[in-house]
Amino acid sequence: MTRGTTHQNRLRRMDRWIAATHGPALRRAADPVVVDLGYGAAPWTAVELLRRLRAAEPRTEVVGIEIDPARVAAALPYETDGLRFRHGGFEIPLDENEGEGSRRAVGAADGAVPRRPVLIRAANVLRQYDEAEVAEVWARLRARLAPGGLLVEGTCDEIGRRHVWVALGPEGPRTVTFATRLGSLDRPSDLAERLPKALIHRNVPGEPVHAFLRDFDRAWAAASPYASLGARQRWIAAVRELSADWPLADDPRRWRQGEVTVEWTALAPRS
To answer: Which of 21, 108, 116, 222 could be 146's S-S partner, Cβ–Cβ 3.0 to 4.6 Å?
Structure first.
């Protein structure tokens, strides 16, 4: 069970990115169901996720899943059209008769196909796990995705100013996104403390993520003349310089939001 710290708007940066990059997949999906895994002591993140994703696809449904039955009970009064809460964990139970103790998946007896989420968001869930356990958890969650689905797993600070997440498809990790409130940033490597579990212990010399943050700090320093135009212009200039040496997966439309997304293969641990 996580600590459950759940400030309102804590996951707004991740939500905006999901809506922008995965919105088309939601619109294409016959059953656009989304999971907020480990939503915490209060249901705000699931409530906000539904609102933001319904702006991209009005048919979206969100299921909040928590391992603590007391948290699920506390969230039930917030259920509404398109928003439900379930007790469970990495098995991703989308209906009441699914779960670790269930003998069958929903619909197994009548030939129906069990529902699979087009998106699983797991924010601040794996931080208490060992690094060696991450790959197994990722694989388990990816196996629950619908075709073309996305797993977004990452970590942020308590009020959502700094956030780093990995996006994974059914085939494995695709990208790493760094997102920040630019006015609070001294240098890009400040985001290192929010690296997800798969990368946080790899921020050491000789590892790609360490080299990336080093180069980002250098680009940030070189872009200091843009500071007079604001932190956003300095960030954009730094990211543009960074793109000469690192495979970025986004463009200035996202950079303006205080984001930069890098191909996973460039940052993956060496061993």
So the answer is: 116
Give tens-digit pLDDT for 194-223.
Answer: 999 999 999 999 999 999 999 999 999 999
Question: Average pLDDT over the chain, rounded to whole?
Answer: 91
Residue 128's pLDDT is 86
Q: Write down the pLDDT at residue 110.
A: 41
CATH of domain 12-180: 3.40.50
**60 vs 205: CA distance, rounded Å:** 43
Domain ranges of the chain: 12-180, 183-252
CA 176 to chain centre: 9
Question: Is the predicted pLDDT of residue 65 greater than 70, yes or no?
Answer: yes
